[in-house]
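User: I'm writing a short report section on ligand binding and want a predicted complex to refer to. Could you take this sequence and nicotinamide-adenine-dinucleotide and write out the structure as C-alpha cells? A short remark afterwards would be nice.
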Amino acid sequence: MTSANYYNIKDKTILITGAAGLIGSSVAKEASDLGAKLILTDFNKDKLDKISEELSAKNKEIYSLEINLSSQSAIELLMKRSLAKFKKIDSAIYCQYPKSKGFGDSFEDFEEHNLYQDLNLQLGMAILFSRKIMMQFDIQGYGDLIHISSIQGVQSPKFRHYENTTMSSPIEYSAIKSGIISITKWLAKYHKNKNIRVNCVSPGGIENNQIEKFQKKYREDCTNIGMLSPRDISSAILFLLSPEAKAINGHNFIVDDGWTL
Ligand SMILES: NC(=O)c1ccc[n+]([C@@H]2O[C@H](COP(=O)([O-])OP(=O)(O)OC[C@H]3O[C@@H](n4cnc5c(N)ncnc54)[C@H](O)[C@@H]3O)[C@@H](O)[C@H]2O)c1
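Assistant: Sure. The C-alpha cells for the complex follow:
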C-alpha cells in the first residue's frame, strides 16, 4: 500500500483554486487518482483546460471553471456554479497565487500600488474566500478548508541564499504568509463545535528551474532533499483532508525538509 492509497478521500467533492498551478495541479492529480470529485478553477484557461482534459480521461467527475478569482462577485459565481454541479463541497484548497507586476521588487524599490495589490489579492481574497466557504460548510454541517502559507510565513528569509542572483523573498510575502497562518487559527477556533476544520500547509521551496547556485545554497540548509516537488506538498494536503487527520485543526503543517530547523 502506498501512502497515497491510505488517505480515504474517495467520492469527496474537493474545490481547488489555482488548480492549474504547481501545487494546485498536483493536488488535483493526486486527489483524482484517489477517486475524489473535483471542482478546478483558475484564470489560466490553457493550463486549466490541459489539466481538466488530462484528468477527465479517467475521472468523469471533473468540473472546471475559468475565472479570475479577485472579487467577492467572482467567489459568489464560483460557489453558485460548483453547488449547481455537485450540490455540496466537502473540502476546499486555496492554492491560487496572484502576483502584481512588481511582486518581488527589492525592498528599496517596490511601489505602493503593487504592495496594496499583493496584500489585497493574496491575503484579502483568502479571507473573503474563507468567509464564503465557511458559510457553506456551516449550512452543510461539516467541511475542511486548507490554506497554503510558506516557510517565509514562519521564519525570516535566509537572505544569503539570494546573494548574487536576481531572486528575492519580499517583505510583503512574509507578512501575507504569516497572515495566512493567523487566519487559519482564527477560522478553526471561530467554528468550534461545527464539525469544520481549517488547516494550513507551509511548503518549502519547490523546484521550478531556479538557478543552480540558489538551489545549492538552499540545499545546505535542508536535511535530506533540498528543494521539493509539488507532490511532496499535495500528499501532505490530502492527508490533512482525510478522516485520518480528524484531530488536526488550526494547524500549520510545515513541509520543508527541515529548512526551518
Ligand atoms: N512554489 C513554491 O515554491 C511555493 C513555496 C511555498 C509556498 N507556496 C505557496 O503555494 C501556493 C501556490 O503556489 P504555486 O507555486 O502552486 O503557484 P503557481 O503560480 O504555480 O500557481 C498559482 C495558480 O494560481 C492562478 N491564479 C493566480 N491568480 C489568480 C486569480 N486571480 N484567479 C484565478 N487564478 C489565479 C495562476 O494562474 C496559477 O495557475 C501559493 O500560496 C504560494 O505562496 C509556493
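A remark for your report: The domain at 3-255 is CATH 3.40.50.720 (Rossmann fold). The mean pLDDT is 96.
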